[in-house]
User: What shape does this take?
Amino acid sequence: MTKKNSALIFAAVAVAAVVAFAPLVLNALFSNQLYNGVWGKSLGSLPVLRGGRMMPMSSAAADALRATGGRATAKVGGAKISATQWIWGINADFHKYANLPLLRTDNRQLQKLLGAEGRYVSYYAVEKNYEAIYKAATSKNQDVYSRACIDILNAAQVMGAAAQALCVAFPDESSFVGGLESWRKNVLVAEKEFAESEAKKRKIDHSKLISASAMLNYLRAQAAFEADVGIEIINTVPLGGSFQTPVAALLKRSADGKSAAVVDAYAKIADCIVKGDDAAIKAQIDSLYKDVSAAKGVDMFKIRLENAINIIDPFFCGLVLYALALLFMVLSNFKENMGWVGAVFLGAAALLHVLAICARVYIQMRPPVTNFYSSVVFTGGLAAVLAFAAYAKKGSVLIAGAGALLGVLSLLVAVNLPYSGDTMGMMRAVLNSNFWLSAHVMTIMVGYCGLFLTGFAASFRLVANAFSKSNFGFLTTRTANVVYLSLCACLLFTFTGTMLGGIWADMSWGRFWGWDPKENGALMVVLWTAGVIHCRALRVCNDRIFLALTALGNVVVAWAWFGVNLLGVGLHSYGFINGGWLWLGIFIFLQIMVAPFALLVYKGDNNI
Amino acid sequence: MWPCLSSMYKVFKSIAKVCASPILTVFLLFYSVGLIFIATIAQLDMGVELAAEKYFESFFVLANLGGIKIPLMGGASIGVLFVVNVIFSMFARLTFGASGVGNSIMHFALVLLVLSGGLQFFMREEGRVVLREGATTNIVSDTDSGALVSKLPFSIRLLKFTRENWPGSKIPKSYSSRVVFISGNSSTEALIEMNSPASYMGWSFYQMSYSEDPRGGNISVLSAVKNPARLLPWLSVAAAFVGMLMAFTARAWRRRL
Assistant: This one.
């Protein structure tokens, strides 16, 4: 390696490090550490229970915010605030946030009804037009508009539930702590009256019960509302071995001192936020931390790790690095030493990607693939690692470029997937088996990943044929040899994975095969791959057609993986993806456009 | 006599040539991809089960492609052609050595897989058993229509149904039914859970779903399956896996050398 090349690689390593550490530095410099501290005791790393899983406040808040506004950050007065700031904000000062356009609807008609200027409407606007929206949402003929009405009502409900997840705002009380004090005082007064009337055998003086009963009614109404919320609510107060909402904790008469202390601490912090007294919040956090982290089932290391991942967002950094890698891999066709620079970026991105997956596996104690989101993330990471290994060992720019492209695509899809619940959510009863989940799903995912890599490599060769003047036939045959072996390996994985799914289904439901759309998709992939392999093994077509068929295999895999989920039928579809059809269509179109390149023939080519 | 035999041999040879044709192999594979795609789309309208019956469990099907009706070969025809094609191709291109033997194992295992699919179509009985807590029954009814499928030679009683959610959430963690199988004077207790069925006298019972009884208590829905050919697909999948592994590693190894 020459001096110039070493300098180049050194520079690439430095740039990769800057990209990887940029979020940490930016967070330390510009973010409010009280809410968004990466590792210390912050308001975002408090443990809460949501959907059966302990998670940091920042995760629960981001989930709730995404369910209301589609994004994990909110815009308040032109400034971006984090989900943690949002949830503390709506709890401490609901009136302010209810006036801001934070709920999202994409339906024009509904936007017009609510007088919105863009996609975002305020909570109060929904409340004001509640009757019209409710009528449309429950109308007999369900159309796009009524669907949008249902969505906006759900969003408002989620925001309402999140706004009382940290502290209870009793009506007509000037502060949260004041509300708690008068609740406890009124309960004591009522209890005393009951006891006295019992002891002296006199009638109960109802005037002494009025305040307590009014507050009790309020709490009961809120509890009923919480039970009615469509998605998972956030439980912040440790109580009786689990976590509950403050409303539920106040309604429990036998609440222990610790849970009361937690309710108090949350209320005090909310009061400090209203006053803007940051120093007082810091003083409160310490004792609150002590109480919640001692609760059953809380692993503070996991909670902090997840909070750190939320803030650092390694998948976004990975996306940037993959894009750089792809750029330099393409450049290496013109200047060879650019390949090494690309490889550094690819390696850094793959490292970050794999570390993030490992962290998710550790937090969740589940195999890396549990739902659609994680299947996309896992496949991209695996492709990047394979591609990096291929470049390090064989100097294969073709595979390295395909791996970088797959990395970019997978993280793009993962980052832009519409909200469909916690990405590390608990598994439903049917899927609650770590062994089968990993054996079946991961084997298939390895196969799909390999097929995409192979498909991209084949596409790249076909398109490159149009630009290379010599060596045309030789390069095509060499690529076809590699592609053939790779397809065989992929067939082994997809076949085994699909059939393992059959065995799992046979063991759990008593049927090996049910022609479920997802099963159909997997079978289509297996059959297509087998068909392409036979085309070459039985010499049915030439190498260029073989490469074209391999490239078209990407369409089949994309259908099996994404298209079937878009159909939204059957056991396996983990959620409808709005707008996904467009992107799938674009991908399929581009991939099909590659096939005609197989018709190019070079003069003197003996491989026809 | 001899000329007759030799002409018969000639006829057989030309039939064998067609049956072992590579074009047929490739056609069948790509054709099935197309058929499954059409059937998947049809499932949107017809439902999963009905479309599967129409497209895969038939020899011919009148497919509806956006209003235009086109007759197509169904899954059963493909299965038959596949079995014929593989058997003839295997004998026509028989080789020995690790790769060849692996190839043969893989392909014959796949034939067995397809045949066991056909066998199960005829031999397998499936339905559901609906039980209130404390109730006893021996009736297996159809999952969709509710019609009687079969009467069990024993009866089954639901002692208790349990449902557990993940703490503080509405996501189900597990369902289970504690049941007793009663045959004559003998009774056997068993626990049926998600992913963990119970078997009795050739029938297997799987936890399917549940509902709440308006009169109180729970109703458990079990799926009951009798499948004498159950192990065939498992065996053929295992054999196909071994065959593939042999064939592909041998091929990759040869390329390295």
